[in-house]
Each structure stands twice: as structure tokens, then as C-alpha cells.
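So, read this over?
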Amino acid sequence: MGTRSRGGRSSLLLLLLCLHASLRCLVSAAGGGGSGAPYVGVTIGTAVTNLLSPSDLAEFLRAERITHVRLYDADPRLLSALASSGATAIVGVPNDELLALGSSPATASAWVARRVLPFAAANSKNPGLISAIAVGDEVPTALPSALPVLLPAIQSLAAALAAANLSSIPVSTPLPFSIVIDPFPPSQAYFNQSLAKSFLLPLLSHLANTSAPLMLNLYPYYALMQSGGVVPVDNAMFKPLPPSLEMVDPNTLLHYTNVFDAMLDAVYVAVKNLNVTTGGGAVPVLVTETGWPSYGDRKLEPYASRDNANTYNSNLIKHVATDKPGTPMRPGAQASVYIYELFNEDLRPGPVSEANWGLFHGNGTPVYLLHVNGTDGFLGNDTTDRTFCIAADDADEKAVQAAMDWACGPGRSDCTAIQPGEGCFQPNDVRSHASFAFNTYYQSQGKAGGSCYFQGAGMVTTTDPSHDSCIFLGSKLYSNVTKSDGAGSTTTQTSDAKGFAIWRLRTGRENGFLLRLLLSGMVAVIMTNSNFWT
């Protein structure tokens, strides 16, 4: 997530700082250049154990019908493999390369010759492989000292591409949503004044002149985290709301059924206030990151769960790729998005959730199975007809332990796989082990009514709880599971497309977590003084 690090406190001091600091969120629009039908892509990072080879990654993308990816550098090994995957890629320029590129047009030309031409020239294997170049990542908050060279770097790279007859490849920079101040209600949004005229206006003018998109990162999750209950959970996840809970902009009387669209409209208004056209005009908007964590600290990150991540990303895909409604201010002009991220980056430091934003584990096993019917097989792992039984989130741990003891004893569930050394022993905690035992019993009873009750300790979910080499009964993956030596542990049969560790395309992120959470906190304070959230 750009330079995103995670964490932060909702305090008055932080909220006041929000008024003066840039905050962040990532959102991407239609195509690399903002044209064509809206799509959903994924970002791919590198901080993961056991790296997948580029060729295996390309096969994995084909298997999941993923056709748009965002990379955080321009690794030639990966780009060579992607040339046969059918996917297009936004390639990145890391923040630590900005000074060289922004200081020397010759260096920018050499970068294009080395990183782009072999994969985009007319005589290359797939001339359409590179869809855009993302220069830096959330530089205003992640590396503000590089801001003076950011636009020169963008301009030099664009000039080098034009000289190579590749001006069709747009060049932009992913910005944090925190550059938008007072974003709610959207009609009163404006850009951080310390950046507006000195950086954003010339940037937007350059983007307009080169038909390049404004790249942004956008995370409704953080708005929810710091709202203090002001933002309805359903509103953050695209769930239907009763009219009384819809957000209403008091200035335009437009109704907002989700936070995502409200944030996009805030960007449109802020750009309009600089007299630069976005969306259907000269500068389209591309959401380069958005997503939801599937796991986090139970006390500090209560909304980070598999069910919530499944709901947000499934509804996001439907919203963008199927419904295509646009926003209340821009109906029909739907921005494309990149979901952060394809794989859990288990090596990322920070809060627990930081390592749990992926759609898949490093071995290719889904973290959860998305509800994505009607999207032409994209991430084809719908769970509409699949249910599982797991330990209830709010159940007392002693009750969960007692229920597991019954399931593995009188209930006759096969609990071999949760014994030490077996495939489902890790994570070694009561709830994880109980979920396996509960589900085994539930599936053995044909998912009959009451078979997931366990005196209130169990709950039914459509999110596949399988993880790593631990495959739960009822999973779509179970057909690929074998029993090892009769011991009852589960292992996944691997192939070039499935069951592997992941080749990571991005290194670590800079420190921007505090600023991101500041924005969400400011949103809560602003909205308690208006009727926007009522």
C-alpha cells in the first residue's frame, strides 16, 4: 500500500495534526490512461516468505484470470514472464530512485531504455504489456524531501517515452488521499494548500497535457477504523443501507451509499477547485490501491476479519466491474481500481493487520473465497453455495475449548490434523483448532441445521477458513488434498499454477501509517458537526 504502514491512535492531538498534514488512501480509475471499460486489478508486493518464480506467478495470474496488475518496481525477470500471461502491468519507480531520475533527463532516458523498451517496443513479445508507469509512491507523506524532484522525474520519463514513440504509456504518481482536506461532505473538499499551487496544479496540468491519470490510494477501512462509530460498518463495505443511514451532502443533497464513492467525489471537487478537469475530461482518476485486511489485533483492529475483507472486496469488484454506477457526482463514469493486494506479505512489520491484506496466502491458497459471480471468471472462487463452521468471534474461550473437546470426542470429528506436526496445528491456538474441529463435524452432518451451534460457540460463514497447507472439509480446494501416510494431516498438491510460494514484486514500505489514520480521525470529527452521516 504505497508507503503505508499501519497503526495509530484516535486522539485529539492527532486530529488536530490532520488539519495540517497530508493524509493518505489509494484509489485507481479506469485504465492505465483512464480510458476504456472500468476494471479491477491487483497489486503485488514482495515481503513474503518463499518466493514464487516469475513463470509460476504468470501461470497463477492466468489461472485466476487476472489481467491487470500493479508492480512496485520494473523487475525484468517478472516482466519477461508476464509477457505471456495475458496481463498488463503498471510498473513502478521506487522512491529511492526519484532523485537520480528527477535530476537528470539522461538518467530517465536510460531507465526507459533498460526497463521499458524491452517490454513495450513494437518488436517486443507483448508491446502492450506495460499499461502505465507509477513514479514513486505516496511521496508527499512517505518521502517529502523528494517532492521537488517528483514532477521533473515524471516529465523526464514522459519525454523519454515520447522520444521512443511510446507516448501512449502514461506516466503519473500514486498520491495519498490525505492530500484532500475536509473531504466530507465531498462538496467542500479541497487540496492541502501547502501542496496545491506548488505541486498539485503543475502536476495536474502535466497529466492533462499527456493524457495521464491522477493516481490515488483510497481506503474506506481507515475511515471506519477512526470514525468512533460515526461511519456505519455497512457503509464502508458497500452493503445496502436504509435511507435514514445514507450519507447526504448538505450542499448538493446527493446521497452516498458507500464511503468509496464519497472519497472519489471529494477528489473530483478538489481538482475542480484548481480548475483542472478530471474523470470524463482531461485528467481521469485511477485508484491504484484499495482493500481490507483479513486479520488484525482483536482489540485494536476489530474490523480486520476475513468476513469483512471478503465482503468489501467482493462488493468492490461487483461495484466496479459489474454495476459500474460511477459516483453521485459522476454517474456512469466509473473509476478502475487495484485491490491491495494479491498475496499476504507475511514479512511486513507493524500492526498485525499489516501482513494480512492479501487475497491469497503465499502458497496460492485463498485467504477467503470471493463472491464474484458475473465477472467473467475473475478471481474465480465464488463461495455462494459453500458454508463452513468456525468458532464464533464473541464466544468465550472456555466454551470454545469445551465444544472442541466434545467435537473431537463424542462428536467423532477427525481431529488428527490439529495435532502437533500436522497440517492444521498452526496457528496453535484454541479458536483455530476449534474451527477445524467444528467444521469437520458440521460437514460430516451434511451441514444440517443446528450442527454448527455448539452451545453458541460456533458460527456459520461463507468464507473458506482454509489456510496455507490446512484445507478444511467443504473447501473448493479439497479435491486437491491428500492424507499423508494415514496420519490425517492435510497437504495441498502443488502444480505450476497452485500451491506455491509467491514471487514478490515489491519491497518494504516507508512510514506513512500515522498520517493515514489521522485522516480517518479527522473525518469523524468533521462529520459530527454536520448531517452528512445521518
Q: What stands out?
A: The longest strand covers residues 88-93. Confidence is low (pLDDT under 50) at residues 1-34, 479-534.
